[in-house]
Write a structure and sequence with these properties.
Blueprint: E1 6-10, H1 21-29, E2 33-37, H2 49-67, E3 71-77, H3 81-87, H4 93-98, E4 104-111, H5 122-125, E5 134-137, E6 142-145, H6 148-153, H7 160-166, E7 171-172, H8 173-176, E8 194-199, H9 207-217, E9 222-226, H10 232-235, H11 237-257
Parallel strand pairs: 1-2, 1-3, 3-4, 4-8, 8-9
Antiparallel strand pairs: 5-6, 6-7
Length: 259
């Protein structure tokens, strides 16, 4: 069986969906359909993780899976691990197939991403305070980035890095302090279908933090390490696309064997 999945690329905090254009193009060249989604919270004070999770599920995942019966590989960057872990409820291909339904998620890819447990906030996972490069502005209700070019795009060449820097948005304070609701990455339907991509030169979420996220999630997952900063979709989209393609094949094989 050929699953021919659509790869859904979800950006993290502070970012807009256009940063995925190089990765999206590489995957399309390899024959995959892609959809890129920027979350609701960047630049919008007062919005929370719940708004992002609802938007991801109702505006994209339900459209592709419930309405069109498509198979999906879900790629979550950084903060997107919070809403993504909630939005996937009941959408695994294995669970849907058992119910006689078409389509579903065949793989979850977390790239230098938070892997929350129910009740955790992003601030909790940062150790109880904002990161040194984060500056909360309580008048605007947004957390701003100090030197976003260095933090997010240190290994991205110009002019690409400079353009991306101009698109960085503030992130709502409330979104970083909202406890996660129920999460579903540990569901049986995702067994063998979880990948964590570590970015070893990351200045936003250092490798030790990524290691802690993976260990504290207490679920088995594939692990791949890239010699890149926080944004390999811009700094090395060719390598990142190859890794995604490799694990799509792994996810497809596991899905075939559990039919």
């Amino acid at each position: 069986m050929s699953f021919n999945p659509t790869v859904v690329l979800v950006t993290g905090a502070f970012h807009v969906s256009s940063v995925m254009h190089l990765l999206s193009g590489k995957l399309q060249q390899a024959g995959y359909s892609t959809r890129s989604m920027g979350l609701k919270t960047p630049g919008n004070s007062g919005l929370s993780i719940d708004h992002d999770a609802t938007a991801l599920k109702t505006e994209l995942l339900d459209l592709l899976i419930e309405q069109q019966g498509k198979h999906v590989v879900l790629y979550l960057h950084s903060y997107a691990g919070f809403p993504g872990s909630a939005a996937i409820r009941g959408l695994s291909q294995q669970e849907r197939a058992a119910q006689g339904k078409k389509g579903g998620i065949i793989g979850l890819i977390y790239q230098s991403a938070f892997i929350p447990k129910e009740g955790q906030t992003l601030i909790d996972m940062l150790g109880g305070s904002y990161a040194p490069w984060q500056s909360p502005d309580y008048e605007t209700g947004l957390v701003n980035v100090i030197d976003s070019k260095q933090i997010f795009y240190a290994d991205v060449p110009d002019p690409l890095a400079s353009v991306a820097t101009t698109q960085v948005c503030g992130q709502p304070i409330v979104s970083m302090n909202t406890p996660s609701g129920p999460i579903y990455y540990a569901d049986e339907g995702y067994l063998g279908r979880r990948l964590y991509i570590h970015t070893e030169l990351d200045q936003a979420l250092p490798p030790f933090a990524q290691d802690l996220f993976v260990a504290s999630s207490e679920v088995e997952r594939h692990v791949k390490k890239l010699n890149s900063g926080h944004s390999p979709f811009l700094s090395d989209s060719t390598t990142l696309a190859s890794v995604i393609q490799e694990y799509i094949q792994t996810f497809e094989e596991i899905s075939r064997n559990t039919q």
